Amino acid sequence: MRLPGTARVNLRWKVRVLSVVAVALTLSACNPFAPGLDLSVGGTSSLLGDQTTVEGVFQNVRYAYTFRDTTIYGQAIGGDFLFTFRDYERGVDVTWGRDEELRVTAALFQNAQRLDLVWNNMLSLSIDSSNTLATVSRNFTLTVTFNPGDIVRADGYSTLTFTRRAPTDAWMIQRWRDDSQF
């Protein structure tokens, strides 16, 4: 069966247009149904904080707890880090270093189904004149869900000391003293 002349021209035209569109899509390697990749860095929608600010470090620690991400947490902890808390049952301060902190935190991340860390009010913030040493006292709320029947909530405050070599470097947590009275 032969198509009339006008129908043949329309069909050829449609085939040519579809061929050009198909070639263009193939050459551009784009999927018109998928959103583009956002390559911007440091946008306001980022979940991670800017560690050249003290608040950015707090944001990253919160992110690490929320997503149980030991890599992000480790990037906030300095090489000479010390964690201290008061063991009220024994009446002594307990201190450990970076390796123990990362091991304890990794175990918490592994054993919890969900972690919600909220940094509340800053009670004090002090930054030295060289802008390389900062001390912050801050309230926090930590909710640890081990399973639906085992949820632990802690409200307390900590004093953290941050250091960096130069004012343009990232802050690292050097000392973390949990001043909570659990």
Structural class: alpha+beta
Helix content: 25-40%
Main beta sheet, described?
6 strands, mixed
Radius of gyration: 28 Å
Strand composition percent: 35-45%
| CATH topology assignment of the largest domain | Nuclear Transport Factor 2, Chain: A
Architecture (CATH level 2) name of the largest domain: Roll
Encode the helix/strand succession as letters: HHHEEHEEEE
Number of DSSP E strands: 6
The low-confidence runs, each spanning 5 or more residues with pLDDT under 50, are none
Q: Report how far the terminal alpha carbons are from each other.
A: 89 Å
Strand order of the largest sheet: 2-1-6-5-4-3
Domain module count: 2
- Mean pLDDT equals 86
Overview of the structural elements:
With 182 residues, this protein is α+β, with helices and mostly antiparallel strands. The protein has two domains: 1-36; 54-178, Nuclear Transport Factor 2, Chain: A (Roll). Helix content is 32%, strand content 37%. A six-stranded mixed sheet has the order 2-1-6-5-4-3. The longest helix is centred in the first third of the chain and has 24 residues, at 5-28. The protein is globular.
Summary, kept brief:
The protein is 32% helix and 37% strand.
Question: Keywords for this structure?
Answer:
single chain; 182 residues; alpha+beta; Nuclear Transport Factor 2, Chain: A; 2 domains; 6-stranded mixed sheet; 4 helices; 32% helix; globular
Q: How are the secondary structure elements laid out?
A:
Elements: H1 5-28, H2 54-67, H3 70-76, E1 77-87, E2 92-97, H4 98-111, E3 114-127, E4 133-147, E5 150-163, E6 172-178
Parallel strand pairs: 1-6
Antiparallel strand pairs: 1-2, 3-4, 4-5, 5-6
